[in-house]
Design goal:
By secondary structure, this protein is of the alpha+beta class. It starts with a strand and ends in a 6-residue tail after the last helix.
């Protein structure tokens, strides 16, 4: 089913997926802008509806999770079609308007073991990699891979380097990585193949917070270089 260039398909008995065409670019934020508008329209259309559990954004899609014993699939489909028709209004900046998060980062050394390799691949000095990485303003495109792991777009093009040829069996929590056009922070210690250039003490996911994930799609993120001493002294409370 295709409605106004958006494909609609059910994900088994769990959700309805609304997928953008493959030619809508992710890197520039165009897909994110359309998905944020679409999500806002879905929230309006589904307000008060029974059986709706969650609405989540992916890189190129929005999923509406529902209990289909409480909402008829054909009713959800009709509401989604109306949301698509009504999603062309004013742009939506974020799922949490105004959210801007600055993450302190210790770059290089044991905290960023791939900084030199990234610099070599980019034809830059390590200092230039750090400068470019912290000068940019990033947007959260989606949350995935692990709870609280935010895929950030807006990485300066000179820093677009591929993943490591051999992934690590363990990447520490808080590690700041680069992979292609993306940067991100490991919210938990997991295996991983991104190039690690630094580490932040800030917890990206904490079940003790009202909203466990620190970041949400559309939020803006900045990185700020700090020293090892500042990491431990100023931000020790985060560890």
């Amino acid at each position: 089913m295709i409605e106004d260039n958006v494909r609609l398909e059910f994900m088994g008995d769990q959700a309805l997926l609304l997928r953008l065409p493959e030619d809508v670019p992710i890197e520039t934020g165009e897909a994110l802008d359309r998905l944020l508008s679409l999500r806002a329209a879905l929230l309006r259309e589904l307000e008060g509806a029974d059986g709706i559990e969650d609405i989540t954004i992916g890189y190129r899609s929005v999923a509406v999770y529902a209990r289909f014993e409480d909402v008829a699939p054909e009713d959800l489909l009709a509401r989604a079609r109306r949301a698509i028709q009504g999603s062309g209004g004013a742009p939506v900046a974020s799922t949490r308007p105004g959210a801007v998060v600055t993450l302190p980062v210790v770059y290089g050394g044991p905290s960023g073991p791939d900084l030199d390799e990234v610099a070599e691949r980019a034809g830059l000095s390590p200092q230039d990699v750090i400068r470019l990485h912290q000068e940019a303003v990033y947007r959260v495109a989606m949350i995935g891979f692990a709870p609280g792991f935010a895929y950030l777009i807006g990485l300066p093009e000179p820093l677009h380097v591929p993943r490591r040829e051999t992934p690590r069996s363990r990447v520490e929590r808080g590690s700041v990585g680069i992979a292609g056009f993306q940067t991100g922070v490991y919210s938990f210690a997991t295996p991983g193949g991104w190039q690690i250039i630094g580490r932040t003490p800030v917890a990206l996911f904490d079940v003790r917070r009202p909203s466990p994930s620190l970041l949400a799609p559309g939020d803006e993120v900045r990185f700020q270089a700090v020293t090892e001493e500042e990491y431990h002294d100023r931000f020790g409370a985060y560890t």
